[in-house]
Every structure is written in C-alpha cells, then in structure tokens.
C-alpha cells in the first residue's frame, strides 16, 4: 500500500476471499461490505491515502473469518537484502536465492519505487542470474544489473568447486550498498 504520487486519486481494490462477504477499511474508514463472487470482492472508487488498508472476510453468518492489512512504507528508500541460505555445498549445483527489496525505514517494500540494482559476487561463488518479474524489461538475466519491479528483484548465486567465502554486494544509485556473506563448504 505504498503508491507515492497517487495520494487522493481513486482506484479499484480487489479483495480475494473465500468468505461470503468482504469489507475494506482504509485508515479506519470502511468502504462497506461486498458479496464475493468467484472468491473476489471489488471495491471501486477507493481513495488512496498513505496509512493502513485492511481487508476482512466474513462467513455467511457475518462472523469474521480472517483479516489482513498492508501499511505504507515510510522514510527514504533503502536496500534490504536477504539470502534464503547462508551455506552452499561445494562441487554441486547448490544455489542461494537472494531477495532484494527497496524498503522504507520500517522494512515495508516501497512498491512504487523501481531502480537498477547491481550485484557483485566475489570469492568462492558466481552470480548465476539476476532479475525481477518486470514483463517488459528488455534486460538480460545474465547481467549483473537489473531493474526492480514493484521494488523487488532476485539474484541467484551458485557455490564454486572449492570451499570458501562468497561476498555478495548489492548497489543502487543513491542508496547505501548492502553486503552479505555466504559460505561454501
């Protein structure tokens, strides 16, 4: 729920729910309940404003089944880099998937901000691929630079044949670089 520059604009919000009805709340303001059809409730003319958006699912008796919320990212963008594992096996096809997010100071992804990120891999491994889900990218997955999509990208690192350390550094213009270490055993 981070759409910088869209403040005050109206949008359509689709809530996915297995309940009979769903309610949409933005910063305490309810847009009412809608019947679900094919597991969706569509709320038209929702005014975007930074803060919290909450979707609540109700059963046929009107009892709350579940709820989920999203918040607006706050503060300037920064890189958040996390590997799915810290150790790779040598002499194998073992891979580490490294999530790259542009987040606010609160750790929430800034989905309206995209930028080119560069990934450098040094030591006992190699960068196998870098990409995002951007459908019209025109960028090469085998390059060390790729543009995020809705604030996200993914790097794939392969361990080498010999044990040792891998240093992965992620950079983006105007942002503080982030480094993480992996170990090949």
UniProtKB/TrEMBL annotation:
UniProt KW keywords: Glycosidase, Hydrolase
Residue ranges of domain DUF4982 in the record: 8-64
First and last residue of the signal peptide: none
GO molecular function list: hydrolase activity, acting on glycosyl bonds
Superkingdom assignment: Bacteria
Segments forming domain Glycoside hydrolase family: 79-180
A Pfam family that the UniProt record links to this protein: Glyco_hydro2_C5
PANTHER family: BETA-GALACTOSIDASE (PTHR42732), BETA-MANNOSIDASE (PTHR42732:SF1)
Family that this chain belongs to: Belongs to the glycosyl hydrolase 2 family.
Protein's UniProt name: DUF4982 domain-containing protein
